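1st attempt posting a full record on here, be nice pls
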Amino acid sequence: MKLKNSLTLALALVASFAFFAFTTKPTAYTVDATKSSITWEGKKFAGSHNGTVGLTSGTLGFNGNNLAEGNFVVNMTSIKDADGNASLEKHLKADDFFGADKFPSASFAIKKVEGKGAKVNITGDLTIKGVTQSVTFPANITWNADKTVTATAEKIKIDRTKYGIQYKSKSIFSNIGDNFIYDEFIINVKLVASK
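the predicted structure (as C-alpha coordinates):
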Protein backbone atom coordinates (compact mmCIF):
# COMPACT_ATOMS: atom_id res chain seq x y z
CA MET A 1 0.00 0.00 0.00
CA LYS A 2 2.83 2.38 0.91
CA LEU A 3 4.59 1.55 -2.36
CA LYS A 4 1.40 2.27 -4.33
CA ASN A 5 0.95 5.62 -2.59
CA SER A 6 4.60 6.51 -3.18
CA LEU A 7 4.32 5.67 -6.89
CA THR A 8 1.13 7.75 -7.20
CA LEU A 9 2.82 10.70 -5.50
CA ALA A 10 5.90 10.36 -7.71
CA LEU A 11 3.78 10.28 -10.88
CA ALA A 12 1.85 13.35 -9.73
CA LEU A 13 5.10 15.22 -9.12
CA VAL A 14 6.48 14.25 -12.53
CA ALA A 15 3.23 15.34 -14.24
CA SER A 16 3.26 18.66 -12.39
CA PHE A 17 6.90 19.27 -13.31
CA ALA A 18 6.21 18.44 -16.96
CA PHE A 19 3.28 20.85 -17.05
CA PHE A 20 5.28 23.74 -15.61
CA ALA A 21 8.37 22.93 -17.68
CA PHE A 22 6.43 23.24 -20.94
CA THR A 23 4.30 26.27 -19.98
CA THR A 24 5.95 29.14 -21.79
CA LYS A 25 5.71 32.76 -20.78
CA PRO A 26 3.75 34.85 -23.32
CA THR A 27 5.83 36.84 -25.82
CA ALA A 28 5.69 40.52 -24.86
CA TYR A 29 4.76 43.22 -27.36
CA THR A 30 5.13 46.91 -26.49
CA VAL A 31 2.28 49.24 -27.44
CA ASP A 32 3.32 52.21 -29.61
CA ALA A 33 1.42 55.18 -28.16
CA THR A 34 2.01 57.25 -31.32
CA LYS A 35 0.21 54.67 -33.52
CA SER A 36 -2.49 53.77 -31.00
CA SER A 37 -5.63 55.68 -30.09
CA ILE A 38 -8.48 55.90 -27.61
CA THR A 39 -11.64 57.80 -28.51
CA TRP A 40 -14.64 58.54 -26.30
CA GLU A 41 -18.27 59.59 -26.65
CA GLY A 42 -20.63 60.86 -23.96
CA LYS A 43 -24.32 61.61 -24.46
CA LYS A 44 -26.82 63.92 -22.82
CA PHE A 45 -30.52 64.49 -23.45
CA ALA A 46 -29.85 67.34 -25.88
CA GLY A 47 -26.88 65.91 -27.78
CA SER A 48 -23.44 64.38 -27.39
CA HIS A 49 -19.72 65.10 -27.24
CA ASN A 50 -16.78 63.04 -28.44
CA GLY A 51 -13.02 63.28 -28.48
CA THR A 52 -9.77 61.56 -27.60
CA VAL A 53 -7.58 60.76 -24.63
CA GLY A 54 -3.88 59.95 -24.86
CA LEU A 55 -2.22 56.63 -24.20
CA THR A 56 0.79 56.62 -21.88
CA SER A 57 1.98 53.02 -22.23
CA GLY A 58 0.87 49.44 -22.72
CA THR A 59 1.91 45.84 -23.35
CA LEU A 60 0.28 42.81 -24.95
CA GLY A 61 1.37 39.21 -24.37
CA PHE A 62 0.83 36.44 -26.93
CA ASN A 63 1.14 32.67 -26.97
CA GLY A 64 1.77 32.21 -30.67
CA ASN A 65 -0.97 34.26 -32.34
CA ASN A 66 -3.27 34.07 -29.33
CA LEU A 67 -3.66 36.98 -26.94
CA ALA A 68 -2.90 35.88 -23.37
CA GLU A 69 -2.41 39.06 -21.33
CA GLY A 70 -2.02 42.81 -21.55
CA ASN A 71 -2.51 46.21 -19.99
CA PHE A 72 -2.45 49.89 -20.82
CA VAL A 73 -2.29 53.23 -19.02
CA VAL A 74 -4.22 56.35 -20.09
CA ASN A 75 -3.15 59.97 -19.53
CA MET A 76 -6.33 61.58 -18.15
CA THR A 77 -4.79 65.06 -18.32
CA SER A 78 -4.82 64.75 -22.12
CA ILE A 79 -8.62 64.59 -22.59
CA LYS A 80 -9.60 66.43 -25.78
CA ASP A 81 -12.99 67.38 -27.20
CA ALA A 82 -13.30 66.89 -30.96
CA ASP A 83 -14.85 70.35 -31.34
CA GLY A 84 -12.04 72.01 -29.37
CA ASN A 85 -14.36 73.14 -26.57
CA ALA A 86 -11.84 74.28 -23.95
CA SER A 87 -14.43 74.77 -21.19
CA LEU A 88 -15.74 71.22 -21.71
CA GLU A 89 -12.21 69.82 -21.60
CA LYS A 90 -11.56 71.72 -18.36
CA HIS A 91 -14.81 70.40 -16.86
CA LEU A 92 -14.04 66.80 -17.86
CA LYS A 93 -10.67 67.09 -16.07
CA ALA A 94 -12.32 68.61 -12.95
CA ASP A 95 -13.52 66.71 -9.88
CA ASP A 96 -17.10 66.57 -11.25
CA PHE A 97 -15.82 64.10 -13.82
CA PHE A 98 -12.36 62.50 -13.96
CA GLY A 99 -10.43 64.58 -11.40
CA ALA A 100 -7.30 64.56 -13.54
CA ASP A 101 -5.24 66.62 -11.08
CA LYS A 102 -5.67 64.02 -8.35
CA PHE A 103 -6.00 61.01 -10.68
CA PRO A 104 -3.82 61.76 -13.73
CA SER A 105 -3.90 58.13 -14.92
CA ALA A 106 -6.52 55.50 -15.64
CA SER A 107 -5.57 51.90 -16.43
CA PHE A 108 -6.81 48.59 -17.76
CA ALA A 109 -5.37 45.12 -17.07
CA ILE A 110 -6.54 41.93 -18.79
CA LYS A 111 -7.62 39.18 -16.38
CA LYS A 112 -9.14 36.68 -18.82
CA VAL A 113 -9.16 36.09 -22.58
CA GLU A 114 -11.82 33.82 -24.08
CA GLY A 115 -11.36 32.55 -27.60
CA LYS A 116 -8.34 32.29 -29.86
CA GLY A 117 -7.06 33.97 -32.99
CA ALA A 118 -8.67 37.05 -34.49
CA LYS A 119 -11.82 37.35 -32.34
CA VAL A 120 -11.72 37.18 -28.57
CA ASN A 121 -13.67 38.28 -25.51
CA ILE A 122 -11.64 40.16 -22.93
CA THR A 123 -12.40 40.60 -19.25
CA GLY A 124 -10.24 42.91 -17.19
CA ASP A 125 -9.94 45.49 -14.44
CA LEU A 126 -10.57 49.10 -15.42
CA THR A 127 -9.39 51.69 -12.89
CA ILE A 128 -10.71 55.26 -13.03
CA LYS A 129 -10.39 57.79 -10.20
CA GLY A 130 -8.79 55.09 -8.03
CA VAL A 131 -11.84 52.80 -8.37
CA THR A 132 -11.45 49.40 -10.05
CA GLN A 133 -14.33 47.60 -11.78
CA SER A 134 -14.45 44.54 -14.01
CA VAL A 135 -15.47 45.07 -17.65
CA THR A 136 -15.94 42.58 -20.50
CA PHE A 137 -15.96 43.32 -24.23
CA PRO A 138 -15.19 41.72 -27.62
CA ALA A 139 -11.93 42.56 -29.40
CA ASN A 140 -10.29 41.89 -32.75
CA ILE A 141 -6.64 40.92 -33.18
CA THR A 142 -4.91 41.61 -36.52
CA TRP A 143 -1.37 40.54 -37.44
CA ASN A 144 0.11 43.10 -39.81
CA ALA A 145 2.59 42.67 -42.68
CA ASP A 146 5.20 44.75 -40.81
CA LYS A 147 5.14 42.20 -37.92
CA THR A 148 3.18 44.49 -35.64
CA VAL A 149 -0.12 43.44 -34.10
CA THR A 150 -3.24 45.58 -33.78
CA ALA A 151 -5.84 44.98 -31.07
CA THR A 152 -9.12 46.87 -31.47
CA ALA A 153 -12.23 47.06 -29.32
CA GLU A 154 -15.18 49.26 -30.27
CA LYS A 155 -18.13 50.64 -28.34
CA ILE A 156 -16.99 49.56 -24.89
CA LYS A 157 -19.73 50.79 -22.56
CA ILE A 158 -18.60 52.15 -19.21
CA ASP A 159 -20.99 53.19 -16.42
CA ARG A 160 -19.34 56.30 -14.96
CA THR A 161 -21.40 56.13 -11.75
CA LYS A 162 -19.53 52.95 -10.77
CA TYR A 163 -16.39 55.10 -10.58
CA GLY A 164 -18.00 57.81 -8.46
CA ILE A 165 -18.76 60.16 -11.37
CA GLN A 166 -22.29 61.26 -10.54
CA TYR A 167 -22.54 64.70 -12.19
CA LYS A 168 -26.06 65.15 -13.69
CA SER A 169 -26.79 61.43 -13.49
CA LYS A 170 -30.52 60.73 -13.73
CA SER A 171 -30.08 57.48 -11.81
CA ILE A 172 -28.60 59.45 -8.89
CA PHE A 173 -30.57 62.71 -9.16
CA SER A 174 -34.10 61.69 -10.14
CA ASN A 175 -35.46 65.27 -10.19
CA ILE A 176 -32.95 66.55 -12.77
CA GLY A 177 -35.48 66.58 -15.61
CA ASP A 178 -34.03 66.90 -19.13
CA ASN A 179 -30.67 68.24 -17.90
CA PHE A 180 -29.23 64.80 -17.37
CA ILE A 181 -26.11 63.21 -18.84
CA TYR A 182 -26.31 59.48 -19.57
CA ASP A 183 -24.49 57.26 -17.08
CA GLU A 184 -22.79 55.24 -19.81
CA PHE A 185 -20.06 56.62 -21.99
CA ILE A 186 -18.35 54.76 -24.81
CA ILE A 187 -14.69 54.25 -25.62
CA ASN A 188 -13.02 52.78 -28.69
CA VAL A 189 -9.53 51.38 -28.25
CA LYS A 190 -6.88 50.70 -30.89
CA LEU A 191 -3.52 49.35 -29.71
CA VAL A 192 -0.64 48.83 -32.14
CA ALA A 193 2.24 46.84 -30.65
CA SER A 194 5.53 45.26 -31.66
CA LYS A 195 8.24 43.08 -30.11
